[in-house]
Design goal:
About 10% of the residues have low confidence. The protein is elongated and about 60 Å long. The longest helix has about 50 residues. About 25% of the residues are buried. It has 5 helices and 9 strands. The chain has an 8-stranded antiparallel beta barrel. The protein has one domain. A hairpin with a 6-residue loop joins strand 5 and strand 6. The chain has about 260 residues and is an alpha+beta fold.
Length: about 260
């Protein structure tokens, strides 16, 4: 099954992620997204719709618009299509952390047979997203490439690919991850997602400790707590202002009734 590995790694009674089904959709447009994921390490998950699921690659440093820059992309398990709109907090277990919908749009393969291109290890495609556009290629490598989690990827590791931007009008030297860091879904950053009312499930999580991601996470949690406190104070103020006129209206009505009965 296309989603067997995805489901095997998750406890859906604890994670808000969708269990999902293989859902083949009609039409030529294929969905793609990039989810910025702060887990044990900060990375970006590139997902391309194909045959009813989202083919997925974890890109540790994020996509680069510079054709001279080859970014490591580790192929991971396919995800359900519903996952493409997911943004929130994974409380514990596999992938625990904060997920931001960093980019989304449609993609078009530059080959007639996607499966054959994947088998060959050379998938060329065009992206039409908010942040990522133009022609790209995913190339499978021998596995000897620095930048994988915990060091270099293992030799012969079929999961090891490179994500490379082709030279076109959408290429450039700008660091798109740094230039446009926020969500295309909520326009928020990690602390906004964590500080929202609904994903207050973080208390049950065991966040990463140590390293850059751990330090970043600690800062985000602190900022999220501040955001929540401000929102709570603002809400209490609004509620107080809303309730006072109601009480005055009630008191006025009562006085009017007393005058009426006195007559």
């Amino acid at each position: 099954m296309a989603l067997e590995e995805y489901r095997k790694k998750r406890n859906f009674s604890k994670t808000p992620e969708p269990a999902g089904t293989v859902a083949r959709r009609g039409g030529k447009a294929r969905f793609f997204c990039v989810q910025k994921h702060l887990a044990s390490h900060l990375h970006y998950d590139l997902r391309l719709e194909h045959d009813g699921v989202l083919l997925s690659w974890a890109v540790p440093k994020g996509p680069s618009l510079d054709p001279r820059t080859k970014r490591l992309a580790m192929k991971v398990e396919a995800h359900p299509l519903e996952y493409g709109e997911f943004e929130g907090v994974i409380p514990e277990g596999y992938g625990a952390g904060i997920v931001m919908l960093w980019d989304r749009g449609t993609w078009t393969p530059e080959t007639g047979d996607v499966d054959a291109a994947l088998e060959k290890g050379d998938l060329k495609f065009t992206l039409n997203g908010y942040k990522l556009k133009g022609s790209w290629v995913l190339v499978r490598t021998s596995g000897r490439y620095p930048g994988a989690r915990g060091g270099a990827a293992r030799a012969g590791d079929a999961r090891s690919w490179l994500l490379i931007k082709h030279r076109d009008d959408w290429a450039g030297e700008i660091d798109i991850a740094d230039f446009a860091p926020r969500s295309v879904k909520s326009d928020g950053d990690f602390e906004d997602i964590l500080g929202a009312d609904t994903p207050a499930v973080w208390l049950s999580n065991k966040p990463a400790k140590g390293g850059d991601a751990g330090a970043m996470l600690a800062t985000i949690i602190e900022r999220a707590a501040t955001l929540k406190a401000k929102r709570s104070t603002t809400k209490d103020t609004r509620d107080t202002k809303t309730k006072r006129p109601a009480r005055r209206t009630t008191q006025s009505a009562q006085r009017s009734q007393k005058k009426k009965h006195a007559k």
